[in-house]
Amino acid sequence: METNEAIPTSARKKVFVVANLYHASPRIPALCKFLPKHGWDPTVLTPRLKNIEGVFNAPSKEVLSQINIVEVGEPVIYEERKKDSRTATMAQTANRIANKIDPSVGSPLSRRIERLYWSTYSLANFPDPDKGWKEPALEKARELMGRVRYDLILSSSSPVITHIVAEELSREYGIPWVAELRDLWSQNHNLPSGRTVRRMTTRLERIVLGKAEALVTVNPSMAEELATLHKDKRIFSFTNGYDPSIPVKGLEKSSKFIMTYTGQIYRGKQDPSLVLEAVSRLIDRGKVDRTELEIRFFGPWSEDVDKLTKEMRLEGVVRQMGVVPREESYRRQRESSVLLSFSWEDAERFGVVTLKFYEYLGSGRPILVTNGKPEDVVVKIIESTRCGKVAFNLEETEDAILSYFNEFKKTGRVACNCVASEVARYSYENIAKDYAALLDLVIGKVP
User: Fold this and answer.
1) What's the whole-model pTM score?
2) What share of the chain is helix, strand, coil (3-state, %, to 5)?
3) Which of 96, 160, 236, 397 could share a disulfide with 278, CB 3.0–4.6 Å?
4) CA 43: distance to chain centroid?
5) Which domains does the chain have, with CATH numbers?
6) Quick one: which of 181, 179, 174 has its CA closest to 151?
7) What is the pLDDT of residue 67?
8) Per-residue pLDDT tens for 211-239?
9) Kindly report the CA angle at 60 between 258 and 151, in degrees rounded to 5?
């Protein structure tokens, strides 16, 4: 692999990146790690990074050590703020009552409480829960721009306060600006914030992003949706990916067949029930010995997984391991027999591919994708890379798990026969090359 010295420092252009690295990782740090190879030197402005061990989606220390980061303001971890708010406490109490009334997974009553919580929370924190970061970020950015001439500003959300900061800097210093939306802003169907807040958010988005030279998202369907709101903008999509510099070690032999899921399970958008029901049926039929199998979930606690585990009588088989540092997440993926991926099942949002799926591609382990439809993006990626199996229903899920389990019993491991050239398309090294070409285009300096 080439080093960043392939293009001398003196010949590189400078990009000022505004991002919250608690939430823009691993994408922004990984892209910044490889951009110098393609002629761009990044400086990243982020809230302070401390106590990041164990924080969900915290940036990797190994990658952080390789890029230029400027930290300012207090650490911003809005998952913690949401848990500590008075509204969250009220919602938790209401949910406990709702679960006594209707204990079923994702009951209508619990969904109504969740929507009410988000509406109240979003209105109280408009336009962004992290709005308090704006002033210290602007102060530090002005100090830096007084010393260095940057060729371009790049902001990445969420949180959207990054775009508000970048727009003001772009206007003040006359520097071209590209806004990246890893999640959509006002068009984000996953944030049920209520009609009033959505109208306010849509108006603000049009005003702020209207000043950007170009917009970037992480998949073509999001780009198409964004184009309906920003009709006069150049819009590009660059997928998420994996860091090819993370070593894929040989799989150590295990006495158990281990299926692993890493990351958050989005309630109402992803459904783990097919895998758990399939395993329960295989155990009941004597096809699989429950003592030889383990299903692990690394990430925020899932009430749905807990309920399903009890319903399927899988105590001792299913384990929720909690949030782990990113490096450990990589290690847990690589030591597994099979990695689990649950298709995105929001009818209003086609083409969503979770960040962890791309990390799976770089792990060297086979992937089992459940639910979804044949036209889904993850299905197409599995077909092109040959990195696993897809199961659309219960019977197919049983067959896939049993096939993997029998291979494990016979050989002590499950082979991964990915097409390396297809997998490499999703490496951040390759994505950074395309991204650099866009930045060159925006400033009118195409090599």
Assistant:
1) 0.81
2) 45, 15, 40
3) 397
4) 22
5) 4-76+130-243+428-442 (3.40.50.2000), 78-124 (no CATH), 257-424 (3.40.50.2000)
6) 174
7) 86
8) 999 999 998 888 999 999 999 899 999 99
9) 140
